[in-house]
Amino acid sequence: MLLLFAMLSIPYSFASQPGPERSPVADVVTALRARNFDEALTQSAAALKTSPGDKRLWALRAMAYAGKGEDSLALGSYQHALKLDGAYLPALEGAAQIQFKRGSPEAKHLLLEVLRQRPDDETSHAMLGFMEYREHDCEHAVADFQKGLQAVVRQPNALGAYGACLVIEGRYQDSLQIFERALALAPDMEELRLNYAVAQWKADRPQEALATLQPAIESTSATASTLLLAANIYESTNDTSHAVELIRRAILQSPKDVEAYLDFASLCYDHGSMQVGIDYLNAGLTQLPREGRLYLARGILYAQLGKFREATADFDIANRIDPNLSFPGVAEGLVESQEHKSGEALSSFRAAAKAHPNDALTQYLFAEALSEEGKSPGTPEYKEEVAAAERAARLDPKMVAAHDLLAKIYLQDGRSQLAIKESRAALSVDPQDQQALYHLILTLRKTDQKEEIPQLLEQLTKLRANTKSEAVQHRRYKLEEMPVTSSPTQ
């Protein structure tokens, strides 16, 4: 796929094409093999005046442009060749590499067409594997990386993506040798080092994971991500003193990193040091006064101390800052960024809801997608959201998610009694629904029914404690995304 490989293999790619013994094609090939790209462009331009329908000349011209680093012109020439012959392999390969380098989804169907003709092409499998990794399709990515392993054996980015997918697929032991090879090639690549440590930790090798992180920890330029991962590993081995030291270091180094404050608060919660956690969250709020997750975390600690008035006040502030904030999301440390639905996805949900008006799940998914758009009350989209959520709850009264969504909508609208009704409906189905408890506490605070709040807060904090271990597992194994390069074989 690489330009140099393409130029070296030109005689094989073009020898079978019809033409005179010494044709203009041969002259362009000679110039390309000599890396004389300007001459190749001159020769191909002259030849195309008499043979504008020669796909070979268009592909060779594209290679010359690519050699000069003019990818847009190269892609245009490859596409012209493909208009003449959609299955023309040299043009498919060249266009696929340029589209891959650009991160364009168009690369995928080009690679699949290459593999239809050359099913054992390792470079195409490797590139396809990297694209599937970026699409979070690790099942297919692993299969393609396996078939293209020799093409990426010395490419740390691609090996890192392969290793990450092996971890996601639960093949922790298999990932270790892949990460080890990748890190040996690029010892300064932080993403690789962190992901290798995560893989070792998940493979029940915490000491090896710490050894992997040690060079980064000792570096004066250690990032907060490195320090927090190491802290979590130390805490898992009951070495709390090291964990505290590293989290404090992360806070000092990156005082606006919300993850560091949340990790410290979680550690304080686990060890019964609620006031210490509150003090650190107070410090965090001086740096991040509009960060709802910090208020929510502080509310949890206040509730553990029995300070229910302070707890509900913090929950109320958190809700005002971010009405979409998930209680379990923060309480359990699941603070990953939300991926809002694209307009195209929303159109698909709308079409599905219209086609299946009596399917509760379809109606709920449509309502949820609309909710993530954040439309204001009174807008047509907002009315659609409410109608779809209400329909989902009517069609399936046991759908907890639909009741939770309606409670959030009604809470935002100021329709407190309806929010209370939906929260209680969710809890009648799932008494452990933390989101419903959170909504209920917030709503009751706005009514005259405040006497229930202390009991609900106690219930909420107990649920928080019971689910803590699952949350830690989720945060422990979050992988860093590997950066895309022009090609996994570069």
CATH architecture verdict of one domain: Alpha Horseshoe
Mean pLDDT: 85
Portion of residues in helices?
over 70%
Strand fraction equals: under 5%
Distance between the termini: 10 Å
CATH superfamily of one domain: Tetratricopeptide repeat domain
CATH class of one domain: Mainly Alpha
Number of helical segments?
Answer: 30
Summarize the structure in words.
This protein has 490 residues and is mainly alpha-helical. Among the domains are: 3-119, Alpha Horseshoe (Serine Threonine Protein Phosphatase 5, Tetratricopeptide repeat); 357-456, Alpha Horseshoe (Serine Threonine Protein Phosphatase 5, Tetratricopeptide repeat). The chain has helices at residues 3-8, 10-14, 24-33, 37-50, 55-67, 71-84, 89-101, 106-117, 122-134, 138-147, 149-152, 156-168, 172-185, 190-202, 206-218, 224-236, 240-253, 258-270, 274-287, 292-304, 308-321, 327-331, 343-355, 360-373, 380-395, 400-413, 416-429, 434-444, 453-466, 468-476. α15 (206-218) runs antiparallel to α16 (224-236), α16 packs antiparallel against α17 (240-253) and α28 (434-444) runs antiparallel to α29. The relative contact order is 0.07. Mean pLDDT is 85; it is low at 1-9, 328-342 and 473-477.
